[in-house]
Amino acid sequence: MPQLSRYSDSRVEKLLDELSKVLEMDKAPTDLSLMVLGNMVTNLINSSVSPAQRHALARSFAAALEASVSEDSAH
After folding, report:
1. DSSP 13-66
2. pLDDT single digits (tens) 20-36
3. 5-38 burial code (b ≥16 CB/10 A, e <16)
4. Where are the domains of the chain?
5. How far apart are CA 56 and CA 65, in angstroms?
6. Distance of CA 59 to the CA centre of its chain
7. Which InterPro entries match (predicted)?
8. What's this model's pTM, rounded to 2 decimal places?
């Protein structure tokens, strides 16, 4: 079931497009892109979430990421 968001699809898509363009302009390979995005997530959690909530949010984020990964072979 899709997750409801307080943010519009257009706002989410705009930010996703901008972040993707930065990585593409740098010609960042997949592993580097994932490292940078992972570090960004870690920094956001550590700087914006109370210490008591960090591990629960990280687990929730990891579960959502795993659930969103496709099993198809379109590589």
Report:
1. HHHHHHHHHHHHHTT--HHHHHHHHHHHHHHHHHHHS-HHHHHHHHHHHHHHHH
2. 999 999 999 999 999 99
3. eeeeeeeeeeeeeeeeeebeeeeeeeeebeeeee
4. 9-67
5. 14
6. 13
7. UPF0352, YejL_sf
8. 0.80
